[in-house]
Amino acid sequence: MLESSVSKRAAVLTACLSGLALIGPLASSALAAWQPTKPIEIIVPAGAGGASDQMARMMQAAIQNNKLSPTPIIVTLKGGANGGEGLMDMQASAGDPYKMVISNSAIYTLPLANKLPFDWRKLTPISILAFDNFVLWVPSEAPYGSAQDLVAAMKKEQPGALKMGGTGSKREDHILTAAVERISGVKFSYIPYKSGGEAATQLVGNHIQVNVNNPSENVAVWRAGQVKALCVFDNEPMNYEAKVTTDKSWKDIPTCKSQGIDFQWIMLRGVFLPANVGPDQVAFYQEMLGKLVETKEFKEYLEKQALKPSDLKGADMVKFLETDEALYKDLMTQSGFVAN
Description:
It contains 11 helices and 11 strands. By secondary structure, it is an alpha/beta fold. The protein folds into 2 domains: 2-132 and 266-334, 3-Layer(aba) Sandwich (D-Maltodextrin-Binding Protein, domain 2), CATH 3.40.190; 135-259, D-Maltodextrin-Binding Protein, domain 2. The strands form 3 sheets. The chain has a 6-stranded mixed beta sheet with strand order 2-1-3-10-4-11, with helices on both faces. It has a 3-stranded parallel beta sheet with strand order 7-6-8, sandwiched between helices. It has a two-stranded antiparallel ribbon with strand order 5-9. The radius of gyration is 20 Å and the shape is globular.
């Protein structure tokens, strides 16, 4: 079941992204007839300073600097209940074309793990702007040169002897850890932290032995030579060649698939409007975001954060969301993370 779900998700993503090269960023909408006449609010269902907040602030600046909207952009943080506050606010704002939310896979994990009465189908999907990668990290002095070395060493230890740190419980890092355990036949002791930054600090201090942080969460300690990257959970290496450490770029990190852990794990960065907005309003936002992904600010942000670029929209976005949600539900069910 795990292999089938992952393969189906990878096939859908590959088909959708390859299609983008043919249709171009603005093909989904003609020149939008509707134009906003008051400020647009970006709802961030997360706390200050996190990845979603940073992306929203970049979007705010890029849209305004490049005059992509005739009205100002306002960022509002609604991170209560692990982001449930922001998601529920959007779900209750049907018909309001002046709100958009930037969200990640919390649109699946929160309803499944906490019985949050939220369904992304009650929003209007607009665009997936990027995907986060996940990397398997260990301290720089660890005796592992590859994921195979780590797995082989763990099989000689008692189950749970190595501590894996990650952001939150029953969230992306925890789900990924459980999947790696099933694929590799090993067992970590999972330690949940409030953020990827905290998990990075704990790894450097040897309070944990492994983490699966996003590139942006570990880049500072990687650049400082305090951690090393064993592999990236994607079907291909990251496409950034500039050196981050003295001798390594993001592209130099091998895939976990090539090291015996055949598993792709990427996290969406998607934009949604409330339900019951008009087609002209959808067209405006798709056109605006299509132009956004071509700006210098957005491209620099992608490279700085080592994000996987995307411009999925319309039917392709919905197809991906449906497949991705099924994968999350399958993985969380297998791991006992779904609330009864």
